[in-house]
Amino acid sequence: MRTIRMLAPTLCLVLALTACADADAPEPSGAAAHGTPAAADAASSAAGSAPAGGSTPVSAKEVCAYLDGQLPTLRGIGSETGTMANLTVNLYSWYEKQGAVPTGRQIDDQTRQECPATRTEVLELAGMESFERL
User: Fold this and answer.
1) 95-106, pLDDT tens digit by residue?
2) Alpha-carbon distance 62 to 88, whole Å?
3) How far apart are alpha carbons 27 and 33 in whole angstroms?
4) DSSP code string of 47-85
């Protein structure tokens, strides 16, 4: 009985971590559904550095202003996984409203040049080294 009591919390932790890890799993079919971040990345990559949908790209200044505004929220989350989830959903939604969803590499390039300190803090809070993980 003691062994079961010790294994139950461990099993719950493993299941929770597995569920979180599945969120980063690649699309199994290789073809993403239209309108998903993976589809936007594929379309953007196919068009070179142009964003998906032929829309005007968001300026680096706008991206940095958005990220600066998100910092208080991201700091308050308290976990890297939660911060990454929040950043993924909100950043993608923000870009969608702007009409252009760039690749992670494009976001990295823009933020490295325009706001390296903000970029570093956002990535550290989310436990990431690059926006390509999103």
Assistant:
1) 999 988 999 999
2) 17
3) 9
4) TTTSPGGGPPPPPHHHHHHHHHHHHHHHHHH-SHHHHHH
